[in-house]
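This is your field. Have a critical look at the following sequence-structure pair:

***
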Amino acid sequence: MQIEVYNMLADGEKLNITLEAICDSFSSLLWDVEYYQCGSFEVYIAANPRNIEIFKTGRIVGRDDDNEHFGIIESVQIETDAENGDYLTVSGRFLMCLLERRIIYPTCSFTKQTGYSDIVRSVVSQNAISADNRRIPGLSLGSVSGLCWKQTATLQVSYANLMEWIYTICVKIEGTANIRLVKDSGEQYKMVLDLSQGADRSIMQSENPHIIFSDAYSNLLSFSYAEDCSIQRNFAYILGKGEGEERKRTVYFDGDEPSFLMRYEVYADAKDMADEQQENGETKPIPEEEYIELLKERGKEKIVLPLTASESQIAVQSMQFQYNTDYFVGDHVTVEHQRFGLIQPKVQLIGMIESFDQNGRNLTPTFKRA
């Protein structure tokens, strides 16, 4: 496995990305792929004039065995040590962090049922692609895959951080977003934003081969599980435009209305949600029923499920399953620990840290209950 370093130069609204160097000698590499948040990386490498020249902030780091994830260097630290030598610590996040540089402005309003993929692509286009001097050079819309992105909603959003808002949508519908490099022409590259969804490979389905991590199969080396219900919120009161008792209001809950000890309430302030919209150049009020649906969508964002997380170390050289071949971050799998009689028939792999050092390669996954 080799590290690739790309030079990225912006010339106005144009972006030139070219392969600058290939590095196959480093002390360690951490490659953290996340499903519901921006992933990150860290390279620990000998400090010498050549490496200092190569690893500069603003450049892009990739791997020759991963054409989906690319990071942008955000931090470079030099440490000198007479005994252990001089080293560079190069770190950053994957390209989705570029969208963190934008907020959603002006207000984007979808008062008719619209597919989530169309909503996200429209908001990104308005704030990062076709927005004059706010555009991110070289960024374009890519592919959409997964049934979750066909779900529809009505919503209104303004002044939210673009990257954080996208991941909020991803959590809600169980999809993910990623920006990758694609070779355009010659040695030039462009950035494309893809929307996708993981596959179900658990024992709860029959379409895909089952992926099972278990101490019985010797592919589950360590295992931890935690559950926290203190953060749960399952009933939202949403108040929108107006003053005092005149404020427009509604409630939101999923399924049957929770009650008694099973009811965890939360307040959602939606006073910023406009009750008017621009239509054919005219300002018109949003119909009451449509505005109530917008309020419900705001309340839906406040719903918090009990926190469950499971961290493990799995066998890298497993003969059964190979990471990024048989399963991927975002997939649903099965995890069991037979010695404790514990089985999680369907959990989602929401993160995977690959680490490379003198001891070889390790995989540390993070699971979330489906």
